[in-house]
Amino acid sequence: METSEYNLLISLALIPVVIGLQIWVRKRRLGRRNEAGQQEFDSLATTLLSAIIEGMAVISSLILVIWIMGGILRYLFPVMFNAQ
After folding, report:
1. Could you report the per-residue pLDDT of 2-53, keeping only the tens digit for each?
2. How buried is 31 (Cβ within 10 angstroms: 0-12 exposed, 13-18 middle, 19+ buried)?
3. What is the pLDDT of residue 40?
4. Are the beta carbons of 6 and 71 closer than 8 angstroms?
5. For residue 81, which of 18, 7, 14 has the smallest C-alpha distance?
6. Is 73 exposed, middle or buried (0-12, 13-18, 19+ CB in 10 A)?
7. Residue 78, CA distances (Å) to 10, 31, 54, 65 in order
8. What integer pLDDT is reported at residue 81 of this predicted model?
């Protein structure tokens, strides 16, 4: 079932996930801004937890973008990625 069409479908299905992750992180960051435009946190624990969660979301979305581009390239250029 590892065909290039299957990889393309999976890649295209993951695009909304990446966009959703980026929108989620942006909304979280905008929600913490005060009138001066700086981010406010209640405590050090919430700061660290927020940084870890948002960092994991951004890194995950970057990994997914690389995976998506690989799936699209495998579909467009099957001769280059053919392991025969």
Report:
1. 687 888 899 999 999 999 999 999 999 888 888 888 888 888 998 999 999 9
2. exposed
3. 83
4. no
5. 7
6. middle
7. 16, 45, 35, 19
8. 65
Instruction: Give the type of residue at 64.
Output: L
Rounded Cα distance, 74 and 4, in Å: 6
3-state secondary structure of 33: strand
> Could you tell me where the DSSP H helices lie in 1-84?
4-31, 44-76
Residue with tokens 């495998």: 74
**Rounded to whole angstroms, how far apart are CA atoms 72 and 81?**
12
Tokens standing for 43? 């405590």
Structure tokens at 71: 């799936």
- Which 8-state DSSP code applies to residue 43? S
| Token representation of residue 65 | 């973008």
Q: Are 39 and 33 in contact (CB under 8 A)?
A: yes
